[in-house]
Amino acid sequence: MKILLIRLRLIGDVVFTTPAVAALRARFPEARLTYLVERAAEPVIRHNPHLDEVLVIERPRGLARLAYDVRLARRLRGERFDLVIDFHGGPRSSWFTRVTGARERIGYDLPGRRWCYTTRLPWTRALVPPRHSVLNQWALLSPLGIASPAEGIPPVDMAVDREAAARVETRLRQAGVSDRDRVVVVHVSAGNPFRRWPAEHFATLAAALSVNDPARRIIITSGPSEAGAADDVAAAAQREGAGTGVLRCGEFDLSELRVLVERAALYIGGDSGPLHIAGTTATPIVALFGPTLPERSMPWRAELRAVAVDAGPLPCRPCHQRHCVPGDFRCLTRITPAQVIDAAERLLKESAEA
Fold first, then answer.
1. 124 and 267 within one domain
2. What domain range includes position 91?
3. Are 119 and 183 within one domain?
4. Which of 81, 242, 263, 328 has the CB geometry, 3.0–4.6 Å to 210, for a possible disulfide?
């Protein structure tokens, strides 16, 4: 049996499929499992032990996209998959699902895309009250007779890349970080401005955590396109009295970030892909939520030591993150540094006492 899994675009949503991947391997131990993913999220599943093959899909622009998609469609059709599960539900992923010609094609019941699937499940955003994204992805397994286990759906997972671990160890050593130091990772960027806490708040947070305990090493990380912003946060924190306790250790790719967070005593960041990479470790987490809801997007693992910090109920929250109606991003700007510092110190204390 040949099974194709499709999840395009966002890193966090690929992380949220990993419990389903493990369940499919348990249900079909002899099947060949292939995962179609975009390059940005490929490290999440690169070393997943339950997959036989990972196909990376590119995103060329203009007419090049059409030619590329036709070639890929022919390749997928030639693979003769028996089952396709579209965890994404977007126009591109649903079309690829359809053109495989698989006998069974499972996806969400979305207007304009129903014809792509032989089996359709309720669309995630239509569910009230909000349901976690892991549960939404898992629901697509129900037509295959895969129910939620009595002990609950297992945690998300991302295998450690040994080469990435060696690179991180070298970089920390070069930065003067010893095994005795308590590392706190503060991730200051996000995929869009609707999820980006103000840089000056991050600087105040980093400075306070460093001053409160000089043995800590606060490592500021960001996405590659926002390295300058991370540098500015680190510099501002140092001006606020953090001294050498706040560090920039270069850029970390996703595999390296997963290793770094596992080494850390705490991770702090907004609702973006790196938050969910952190969720594949046992490290305590402070998660900042703006337009999104913890009920849908909190890191998913058993016995999670994590705190969600948000601005509380707002009439505009959650939103579709296309236009800020009030115009001031209040769901983020109203989260104060004091709230985040308090949550971080509580988790660090609990972790030290555990």
1. no
2. 2-144
3. no
4. 242
